[in-house]
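Per your request, structure below.
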């Protein structure tokens, strides 16, 4: 199911939080036999391509768990510094995703914020570092994303045709 909502200008502006957050504690919890989590990711595009990294024959966009007390835009900045070692400018919230799925028999409910992010393409490293592991960075052509096992999957169809409006994506696997 796909729901399209009008773009909210307030959401596109990065929040410069002065509130300290609980550094290092991911916004994840398990309750009543379900795991819940909040993530933020960077949609970095240049010359008609999307920046991803390759891991186990799949492609992922940079990003990760939002920390407790951290705004999602701040999480994107942190994740790009951690994974790519470069600075970025968070421009606009493009997609909000709600995903229901099961991993190893445990139901999961994940909320995701996907932002358009600018970086200097000349500073993008050859590999990304995620939790101490290095993975190759790969620029995938936007118009043929459906030819790649990209995660989250909805990006393969929604990103190439995205109209600039904040889009809500709800999936059940």
């Amino acid at each position: 199911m796909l729901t399209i909502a009008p773009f909210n200008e307030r959401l596109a502006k990065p929040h410069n939080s002065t509130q300290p957050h609980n550094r290092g504690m991911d916004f994840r919890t398990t309750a009543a036999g379900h795991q819940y989590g909040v993530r933020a990711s960077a949609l970095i595009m240049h010359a008609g391509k999307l920046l991803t990294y390759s891991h186990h024959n799949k492609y992922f966009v940079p990003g990760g768990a939002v920390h407790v007390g951290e705004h999602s835009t701040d999480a994107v900045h942190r994740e790009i510094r951690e994974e790519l070692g470069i600075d970025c400018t968070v421009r606009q919230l493009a997609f909000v995703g709600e995903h229901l799925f099961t991993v190893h028999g445990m139901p999961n409910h994940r909320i995701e914020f996907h932002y358009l992010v600018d970086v200097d393409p000349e500073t993008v490293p050859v590999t990304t570092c995620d939790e101490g592991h290095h993975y190759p960075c790969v620029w995938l052509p936007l118009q043929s994303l459906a030819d790649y096992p990209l995660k989250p999957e909805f990006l393969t169809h929604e990103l190439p045709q995205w109209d600039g409006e904040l889009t809500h994506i709800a999936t059940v696997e």
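Residues 83 and 130 are 6 Å apart (CA to CA).

Regards,
D.
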